[in-house]
Every structure is written in C-alpha cells, then in structure tokens.
Please model this.
Amino acid sequence: MTRTGYNGRFRYSTMSRFYLTTAIDYVNNRPHLGTAYEKIAADVIARYHRLAGDDVRFVMGNDEHSQNVFRRSTEAGLDPLAYCDRMEGEFRTVWAGLNISFDDFIRTTQPRHKAAVQAMVQHAFASGDIYEGLYEGWYCVSCEEFKPDKGLIDGQCPVHRTTPDWIKEKNYFFRLSKYRDALLEHYATHQDFVAPEPRRNEMLRLLEGGLEDISVSRAGQAWGIPLPFAPENVVYVWYDALINYAAAVGYGTDPALFDQWWAQTGEPRRQVVHLVGKDITRFHCVVWPAMLMSAGLPLPTQIFGHGWVLFKGEKMSKSLGTVVDPLDAVEKFGPDPLRLFLSKEIVFGNDGDFSWDRFEEKYNADLANNLGNLVSRVTAMADRYRQGHLRATPAAPHLAAAGLEAATRWKQAFDDLSIDVACAVVFQFVDRINEYIATEAPWKLAKAAAGGAGDNAALDAVLWNATEALRVAAVMLSPVMPAACDEIRRRVGDAPTGAQLLWAQDGQWRESGERFVVSGAALWPRLEPKETPVSEEIKPEVAVPAESQPPASQWPLESRISIEDFMKVDLRVAKILTAERVPNSKKLVKLTIDLGSEQRTLVAGIAESYEADALVGRTVAIVANLKPAKLMGIESNGMILAASPDGGKPMLVAFDQAPAPGTRIR
Ligand code: MSP
Model:
C-alpha cells in the first residue's frame, strides 16, 4: 500500500509493521537520566512511526534475575519477587512522568518470559549447541559478565571500577564460536544490521578476532530460570534477558503473534529494531543473533547502539555518584523540554553531556524565546486583529515551500534514526516562520487596514499562513514533544481529537476551512538569568579581541566550524529605538531595539565611538540568541556586531540599505 501525503508531492514507502524494543533495565536502582535517555529516544522513534502510519509495537521492560537485584531485595527485607513488583511501580512512575508510550512492558519473571527462555534453551540443548563444561575466571556482578584478564584494568572492571569475583563452576556452554562465519556473512549482506558505523566496525573487529563459546548457566543460585534439562542450574542472566525480545511477541507461547511481528517474509514488511546502549552491543550484535540462528529464527532488522549521557564527563551511574533524576526536570518543566533537549542536543549515536546550566540555556533559547514566543505573538495577533477567527486563504508560496522542504528532510532524518537532525530541521522551519512574520509585518498591515489604506485580505493571508505553518511544525515536532505540540495545535485552532495523528493527512498544508485561535499564557515562561558578575573590562558585548585569534586565513582546518555550527548563531537586523549612556560607565550604552515583532533591551560597549542620540534610528546587526547577561545591573538581551580594530574604538557593522528589522543575516 502506498500513501501520499503533503499535497500529494511527498510519498511514503510501503507501510510497515514496526517492532521496536529498548534494553530491559536492571531494577536494583530507579531509572536515571541515562537509562531514561534510551527510553525517550525509543519513544520518539515509535511516535514518529505511528505518525507515519506504521503498525507499531513498542516494548520495554525490566530485567529481574540479576544477582544485584537479589541482593537489593535481601537488604530491603523483601522476597525478590515482591521487591521486583515494587520496583516495577517505580519504573512505571518515571516512564509515565516522561510520557513514554510503550505498548507492552515485559518482566523476566513473567510466565510468558520463562516459557520462552525454557523453549529456546531446550531447543539449543537438543540441537547440540549447549554442552556441559567448567568455567574458571572473573565475573563482574554489576555487569553480570564473565571477564577475561585482558578485559580488566589494574585488575578492576573498567566500567564499575570494582574487583570482580573469581569463580570456578560447572557450567553449561553455548557454542557461540560455531556461528562466527554465519555472523560475518550476515554482516556482509546486511550493511545496516548494526548501526551507527563505529559500532558496526567494532563488532566486525570482534568477529574477525574469533569467538569463544560462552557460559550460559550459573550453579548454586536459586534466583533465575532453571535449565529444563538440569534444573539445579539457572540460566545465565544475559542469556535469559535477551530472549525477552522474542518472548514479548509470543515466542514459546503464541506462535501467531510471534509470526505477526517477527517473521521477515510476507506483507506487510516487518522491521524489528533493538535500541540499546553502546556498552551492551556485544550481547546484542553477536550473542543474540547467534542464539536466534541456533533456534532457526530470523534476525532483527537493525540493532542501534546509542551513546551515553554523561554528567560532568562521567557515565551516569549510582556507584560513581553521577546520577541525575529525570523527574527533577519533569517536576519543574514537564516532560517535553527534557525530551527536546536530549533528542536535539545529543547527536544520536554519540555520547553527550548533560548539565542543568546548558539545559536551562536551551530551554530559554529554543522554547521560551523562540517557539513559545512565536506561538504567543501569532495567536495574540489573530486574537487582536480577528478575534481569533480565521478563514482559509491560499498557501503563501515561499512559506509552504519551506514547510515542504523541511518535511522531506525531517522524514529522511527520522528514517535514518538521526533524531537530533529531525529536531534541528523543525527549528529551522520555525526560523522561516519568524522571518515570514518579520517580512510581512502583520501589525503594519493591520494599521494600514484600520486607516483605510490597507488590504484586509493580505492580513487574513498572513494570519492564516502563520498559524498553518505553526500547525505543521507542531505535527512534525509531536513525536518529540507530544503534549506541548497538542497544546500548540489547540492554540492555532486545530484542537486535538485524541485520534492518532497521521502525517498523510495532518501534514498537508490546509487551504480550506476556518479555525478559532486561542491565545493564552506563555507556553514556556522565560527563566530569569542567573546574575552574571561581568566586569565592564571583559567587554562581553563586543566580539572576542582579534589578537586572541589567528588571522582569518590561518585557522587550522580541524578547528574551523561547520555551516551547522554557524547557523546556530541567530544574526538579525535590528533598529535602534532609544539610546542612553549607562551612568558611571565610559563605554556602555543602553539601547532599546526593534527586532521586527518584539522590542528588547541591549547593552553595548560602543559609547566611546558613538553619541547616544546619533544611534537612534540606525539599523544594526545583532546576535539575537545570546544568553542574557547583566552589565552594570542592566539585563542585556543580545550583542551588537561591531568591528574591533586593535587598540581602536568599535565601529558598528552597517548596511548599504536598511533591511526590515528581524530579517535574518546569513
Ligand atoms: N539489563 C541489561 C540490559 C539487558 S537487555 C536484554 C542492562 N540494564 S541497565 O539497567 O544497566 O541498562 C539499561 C540500558 O540503559 C542499557 O541500554 C544501557 O546502555 C543504558 N544506559 C545506562 N546508563 C546510560 C547512560 N548513562 N547513558 C545512556 N544510556 C545508558 O544493561
């Protein structure tokens, strides 16, 4: 089935059945921002596929048979299962707080999971892939992993920085080595099987180096799933946990359901995608596929190993004391700003650092000052000039074309799992909407119309197109910020009905009908800047002194910035409305500027070059998305561009004509 969308110009490929899983979490601690990052990313991907019209099954769950879980339950004085029940509640609370829309939640203590594990283990035993042997070596309980000597640093586990246990046990082994060639063959014929590229290369190197059989049972433990053919042993926790992906869709209990989601033949096309952290790719990209081969089952379509969220450069972990609670951000801002930050600011697949300062900075820049401000301005104008009631007009060609171009790039980015790029594309479209408003200046049209000199139809068209563009932007951003985008749609007169949004219809630019726009309180109130003690001598309002930088022609290639880096700087045309010297300062002047649709206060270090009065009415270039700073007690919102000759006085950047305030400079 092929559907068309976006006025018929944008075609979707065949609808898929999309089965998406995350790693299942150990329940010895509550989720932290790192484990939450994976679930948020998966949720964004699942919501995108639902929006695209795919039949989605998104599964998460808890990994309960680890020794740490058992220990924690003993410390809590609880039976392990009772402890896991309690932790399930805690996990679900966090996932609900973050608005994670999983379709199913599997626990490894559930009967369906036990049945699947026993079926797969029995199959491997019967086919000779599991045999009895002796294991002697290191075991890290926190990793739940056997560790070769070469995997330790100074005798310690490099992940947990603890000394592993030395164990000597009679174990059952899985013939992993037997599957090396078949795995290499699969990697060669399925280039996208492991992503992103560095993970694939790492796994290929590992496979090329040869595989050893692995122990898949533990002796002398009661907490776990008994081996069906030797019940005095339990299944090794990783072998047990990996099977959850098949168990959740009926392996060993519901063959029809399993076929529906796992079979790789027939229509509709099935995609099985596992999203896991980069630390556990070996289990997912080598051990799990070999287990599936042994069971005669198809392999997943893709395993994506995302990076880590770091806090102050360290992996987030309780034992390292670097844990951030995601609910702290949710309580203050709701789930969406955090979802946006993690999706947009971390290149998906790479590591990324989290800090509260940066989070708040991006909140102000992207939400309070940009998207939220745009929604407020557009809805306030619709309210003021048309009492909120708008009738459809034809599409504004440039704005609709910008929407179409954004939609194409947005879809490509999501299909490539580049969720950070998909977010950036939507915000570039938001910039286009801001430019449209600045250029069309609806307040001028309204003034002219009121004076009898203007054209009411032109104002109608601007208001309709601006709300329409915002509506489409909200549909595109809805996988990332579902609740906020519902609210944006409500405000621009497209009240959500509760039905699943479908890009093929909701992504179309609308040129008929009417809408009732609702204005309201700021969606994201601006966070007040922390008082920054900036001395006048630092001159933050003038660019970095030229002498601290190499001459333009000598910038080393590796430290040059990309066009994307440059585009992060929001340069705008502004007109100076008022100017006054800052008392007790030689250099500073306080300005009010017109940015097209808003006015701001800005403090600039140009008083030695320009008389305040002479500045009024000048058109200048400013950096509009700079973090606010306090200078001599005055909050400055932006920076004026000026040339700073060595030892000389600043000279304002000027234009040969005066572009409209708010025009973007690139
Ligand atoms: N129980 C195993 C997974 C079994 S899947 C068959 C496990 N659990 S975990 O609780 O330690 O981690 C769950 C997921 O969170 C893993 O994918 C892990 O990589 C991820 N993360 C844990 N800390 C993280 C960060 N700091 N940043 C990003 N992801 C992180 O491993």
